[in-house]
Amino acid sequence: MSEGAVKKEEKPRKFQAIRGTRDLLPPETALWNHVEQTAHAVFGTFGFGEIRSPIFEWTELFARSIGSNTDVVSKEMYVLGLQHDNPTGLDLAHRRETLMFMSVPSSDKSGIDIFTMQTRKFCSDYDAALGKELVYADVGTKVALKYLKDSISYLVDDLLEQTRAGDWQERFDRTVALCKQYLDLVEPTIALRPESTASVCRAYIEHGMQQLPQPVKLYYMGPMFRRERPQKGRYRQFYQIGAEVLGGGDAPAIDAEVIEMVMTFFDRLELQGVQLDINSIGDGNCRPKYVELLRAELLKVKDKLGPDSQRRIETNPLRVLDSKVKEEQSIIEKLPRIADHLCEECAAHYAAVKHQLEMRGVIYRENWRLVRGLDYYMRTTFEITAQGLGSQNAVCGGGRYDGLVELLGGPPTKGIGFAIGEDRLILSLQESGKAPAQQGRDVYIAWMGERAHATAIRAAKDLRKAGFSVELPPVEQKFGKALGQADKLGAKYALILGDNEVSEGLWTLKTLADGTQKKLSEPELIKELRKTR
Ligand code: AMP
């Protein structure tokens, strides 16, 4: 059999969108646009400006901010370069981590040998992996790698050869510290963003926004990526609309205004069944004591809890409060509540936020079980649920994160923000029939004949300029077929342009809903159409 024959028999692969991702198509995209336009409009009235940050960032940005032991970072992130299924990359990442945290006292000869040998081996393996394109590295990483090699050579070839006199000890410690700093910079992975708060804080620091009038109020919208188990309302590429207020203090009115803004946005969209839950989760002062108390109480009832909650007693006891497991509910209800354990400042802040919400007419429900899994969150937390979403009914999550900018190397900066799940927002709007109807074409131009074609092109141009949606068929059609096509496209009118119409200078406008026709001159046409808009 010839090669050609084999090729013929091979069926071309039919591609499908990757699991957890989907195409958004018309007419649904009209609703997405409506939602996004409304966000631009409403957020603008609250003085927020839009930020568009990159879709990928250094992995470390997310690891530092969200926490490397959270599910979002450890299991769900799409990491490029050192992929989860790239053994070379993973191995290098683990070895780098081990070296960074290795203690290297100058008195420990064998410890020094292990550190220097392993760092050298790390560098050469890293180079080899780069050569084979098994890992990704930018210029900064490559420079850091070079400096790392130089520092290790200095340590091994010069320092360790010297008699340990003078400021030897100091130079030794400094060189080891430098090696670790360079190892830290050999940060080779980039990740698709699982959320945007970290990116906004990074941008705030990078562009010196603390010099601007505070607070800086930013909003964003766009796709986020998490390798979660896909289901209704849960996707691997999903969209968030969010906002952050950075700097300028932590006045309770800031918290309340941010919440008021989301509620105004939902109100404008006529989102149904909106329920706002709020809570305060304290701060670094009072929360650790509460968490310990909670852990102690949970340990007493450990046997009665499911495996997830049992694990969380150790890793993150607050998250047990999130549990939806039916059998655990009566146990959780009896646990100590954070509201009773807030320090004076946090309690006063929480009371003031509630008062501010009342002043703004924002209706809320206090929910002591509402927590955020991440360490940097503090004080105000909130969540908004909406109708028609089943178990994935949270459309918005938000809270205060005063320590985050500092954690990312910036100046101490107060912060609060939220993220709305746009996919879920759209689902809820569709379920409650609040989606605006898709607009069909205004005018379908049924033309016949060469002269009519020229007139039709001019008419289409003028009508479009006047803001009407016009369908101009590319080839001549019989009138019957053209009218059928106009009907299928949901056009309101058919503009009939045949030789007669063109020579008379009177065009026929047919209203498709009732079949009535009118003869109109060219200038009358736009006037007539405007009347019925
Ligand atoms: P988070 O960033 O986890 O606080 O999520 C904020 C909001 O984003 C949630 O309330 C959801 O509405 C939405 N969201 C989070 N993860 C997903 C996902 N995998 N698919 C769709 N929406 C999501």
Structure, briefly:
The chain has 533 residues and is of the alpha+beta class. The radius of gyration is 31 Å and the shape is globular.
What percentage of residues falls in helices of 4 or more residues? 40-55%
Strand arrangement, major sheet: 1-5-6-11-10-9-7-8
Annotation, overall tally of beta strands:
16
Instruction: Output the radius of gyration.
Output: 31 Å
Strand content: 15-25%
Keywords:
533 residues; 8-stranded mixed β-sheet; binds adenosine monophosphate
Structural summary, described in words:
By secondary structure, the chain is α+β, with helices and mostly antiparallel strands. It contains 20 helices and 16 strands. The strands form 3 sheets. An 8-stranded mixed sheet has the order 1-5-6-11-10-9-7-8, sandwiched between helices. Strands 13-12-14-15-16 form a 5-stranded mixed sheet, sandwiched between helices. The chain has a 3-stranded antiparallel sheet with strand order 2-4-3. Strand 9 and strand 10 form a beta hairpin. Helix 5 runs antiparallel to helix 8. The chain starts with a helix and ends with a helix. The relative contact order is 0.10.
Write the layout of secondary structure elements.
Elements (H helix, E strand, L loop, with lengths): L2 H7 L18 H18 L3 E2 L5 E3 H8 L4 H4 L4 E2 L6 H14 L8 H23 L7 H20 L9 H18 L4 E3 L4 H10 L9 E10 L11 E10 L5 H17 L6 E6 L6 H14 L6 H9 L13 H5 L10 H16 L5 E2 L11 E8 L8 E7 L3 H4 L7 E7 H10 L11 E5 L2 H16 L4 E2 L7 H10 L4 E5 L1 H6 L1 E6 L5 E5 H10 L2
Parallel strand pairs: 1-5, 7-8, 12-13, 12-14
Antiparallel strand pairs: 2-4, 3-4, 5-6, 6-11, 7-9, 9-10, 10-11, 14-15, 15-16
Helix pairs in contact: 2-10, 5-6, 5-8, 6-7, 7-8, 10-14
Bound molecules: adenosine monophosphate.
Adenosine monophosphate binds next to strand 6, strand 10, strand 11 and helix 16.
